[in-house]
Amino acid sequence: xxxxxxxxxxxxxxxxxxxxxxxxxxxxxxxxxxxxxxxxxxxxxxxxxxxxxxxxxxxxxxxxxxxxxxxxxxxxxxxxxxxxxxxxxxxxxxxxxxxxxxxxxxxxxxxxxxxxxxxxxxxxxxxxxxxxxxxxxxxxxxxxxxxxxxxxxxxxxxxxxxxxxxxxxxxxxxxxxxxxxxxxxxxxxxxxxxxxxxxxxxxxxxxxxxxxxxxxxxxxxxxxxxxxxxxxxxxxxxxxxxxxxxxxxxxxxxxxxxxxxxxxxxxxxxxxxxxxxxxxxxxxxxxxxxxxxxxxxxxxxxxxxxxxxxxxxxxxxxxxxxxxxxxxxxxxxxxxxxxxxxxxxxxxxxxxxxxxxxxxxxxxxxxxxxxxxxxxxxxxxxxxxxxxxxxxxxxxxxxxxxxxxxxxxxxxxxxx
Length: 416
Fold this sequence. Notes:
By secondary structure, the protein is of the alpha/beta class.
């Protein structure tokens, strides 16, 4: 089935672009707005509307496949590609990608994606967001051309997949609304929760970590007092944005582990994961060294808490490096940061083959389309958990991911 056209349109995402560096430097709040001056290149304000590009691939029989280009909320931070604005990048897709795709057969996603990943403009690879959205459209085109689900295409083309009609755990995120958001998650029965956005020491962690300890205790009691099924035992997963290291020192493994152990005890009977305990702003190697050191301390002491790699773990090569160094017990595979979704597929499979927990994540700043396609991929690669996205409203992202999985699983069961 030949590709006969590629059509682009600008779109909005489910959240915002936020200047992470400005926020860490103490930007203020005024309602939904951040106050202060942006510091990351490309930002005209600290919070900006999230933008996407929808890439539609027209097949010769008239079917239209599509995917959405999108970048993470904290674009331009932690070694990521710069701010992604539709007006800047639609011309690049039309000039450099469209001519390479027209006339090609939509018969092998892996090869089409790898060819697309090799395209360079002025000696540089395409922006991760472009590769992310175009690869979604490509896998949708191959699925439509062959009358298959996207999960079936992934399972056909990649070794190590296990396509079975079972759901993958969904991780929901609350953003700043960590109390009402948690209530929504409990009602929905989310398997992993609440993210909580602990990105400021004084306001959210506490100068000695006391505020997060209090919150974990509140969350524990909230579930125990409100669950309607005593078998509902979600995993706690809290993103700390490096604040634990900011309080105790990025290389002070003993004191960080002491504190994390207290958090783990506070969470019981629920299991706890801590994402991003420290953030070494300088480079990947320092981040790997620090996280590997803390992971070893946690393991040597038998502390029942998992650490999740986040900052500086952006590309497929990064995921492999963190995995090989045992820097963390789980890696967040931030799907837009990896570029083509072929890299997300390979990252999940690499983690699973090498003893690292795979968390297929992403960002609140995606679209409904990218959420659905990546959910389909996860049904074939089987990570430990996937992110409910886009947005921070809990209900909408959870609905999109949950319903997509249920539809796909029902179809797989019907074929058996």
